[in-house]
Amino acid sequence: MNVILDLCVVPMGVGVSISKYVAVCQEIFQRVGLKTQLHAYGTNVEGEWDTVFAAVKECHEQIHQMGAPRITTTIKMGTRVDRLQSIEDKVNSVLEHLNL
Amino acid sequence: MNVILDLCVVPMGVGVSISKYVAVCQEIFQRVGLKTQLHAYGTNVEGEWDTVFAAVKECHEQIHQMGAPRITTTIKMGTRVDRLQSIEDKVNSVLEHLNL
Amino acid sequence: MNVILDLCVVPMGVGVSISKYVAVCQEIFQRVGLKTQLHAYGTNVEGEWDTVFAAVKECHEQIHQMGAPRITTTIKMGTRVDRLQSIEDKVNSVLEHLNL
Amino acid sequence: MNVILDLCVVPMGVGVSISKYVAVCQEIFQRVGLKTQLHAYGTNVEGEWDTVFAAVKECHEQIHQMGAPRITTTIKMGTRVDRLQSIEDKVNSVLEHLNL
Question: Among D71, D74, D79, whose Cβ lies nearest the Cβ of C79?
Fold first, then answer.
């Protein structure tokens, strides 16, 4: 089962700047070969369910190891069985409706 | 690693009423022995990371088997390594600050 | 237009304990007469759109005044024009599907 | 008070394809002059709080007028009083930590 997931990880108790923790997540996703798209409030990730969630777990584990005592994360995610759909497909299907 | 998770599963392409799908998720969590708390916009779940996410995956699988072609899910989740905290602890720590 | 909203406010740069900030939000909602239901990962709020969002704005303003330099908030919210639905209705419609 | 917001609007009861509704939201944000960045699981919006939330309300109103009986929306949003930060700033602060 494929999943497209939007991940927003917020380490707590480490001050207001969290970009280095987000960068570590990017590196985890790249290392395991998952396609990602960074945006200003999270990261889109696309891949097989188990691979994606193993990577999300590693994000939490590694951020704790970096010293964050607490993490709160927001995920939006979608699965569909009617057809295959990629990150690009989702964006393009919106763009097709816009009169640009 | 323990996780407290708030799950909101939205099957798409099945009309406006989705309560029977949410109920199936409740049954999955209960069957695997996870503590849950239902509210009006999701379900709090507490347990060991792998157990919780195996159950979340089963929710998606079973809702697709019930006929939903597409599912979009929102998750909020928290882990902490500084101390143990339960669903009740989180609610109580807010209530202690209220002058009820 | 009525809205049912689930609010999860996370002040950043104030350490790991955020319950006093969540309690302030509870007090704001109560003062303006909005029905709320606290749970372990947020608060359900129900009411007229403009009243609800004025209160959400006041939550952010007041938490900043309490000293939090940064806030990240997750909201889930629903509107419907086919029928009226309360917080209790949503919970009950799930419970009706469970064999308790 | 400035806000950076990530909006994900999901009309229910209209089938599995919702891109035309997302496109309408894009047009609303552009009409009122708000900066947006579309991604595969939502849209980043940046602007003054009241302007942004007036536009979010108009999204719900217009999608209902297009025939959707029910809408569920997920929002992540951030405010900060320590410094100004744009959508580009947030992305760049992560990229600076990556060894690309």
Answer: D71
Contact residues on chain C for B87, CB-CB shorter than 8 A: 40
For residues C11 and C68, is the Cβ–Cβ distance under 8 A? yes
Task: Please determine, for residue B100, whether its predicted confidence score (pLDDT) is greater than 60.
Answer: no
Chain B within 8 Å of D67 (Cβ-Cβ)? no
Query: Residue A89's CB: how many other CB atoms inside 10 A?
Result: 14
pTM of model > 0.90? yes
**Helix, strand, coil abundance in chain C, percent, nearest 5:** 40, 35, 25
d(CA D24, CA D28): 6
Q: H-helix or E-strand containing A10?
A: strand A2-12
Could you tell me how many helices (H) and strands (E) chain D has, helices first? 3, 4
pLDDT for residue D100 is more than 80: no
Query: Is pLDDT above 70 for D54?
Result: yes
Residue type, C45: V
The tokens of C68 are what? 């939090």
- Say which residue the tokens 């089963």 belong to: B58
pLDDT at C100 over 90: no
Predicted confidence (pLDDT) at residue A99 exceeds the cutoff of 80: no
Average pLDDT, chain B: 96
Residue B96: exposure state from Cβ atoms within 10 A (0-12, 13-18, ≥19): exposed
CA distance A38 to chain D (A): 7
Closest listed residue to residue C33, CA positions, set C8, C49, C55:
C55
Interhelix angle D87-95/A19-31, nearest 10 degrees: 60
Instruction: Calculate the alpha carbon distances from A72 to A12, C72, D37, D52 in Å.
Output: 7, 10, 24, 25
* Residue owning tokens 């405010």: D79
Q: What is the pLDDT of residues A5-40, one digit of tens each?
A: 999 999 999 999 999 999 999 999 999 999 999 999
Cα–Cα distance for residue pair B30/A96, rounded to 1 Å: 43
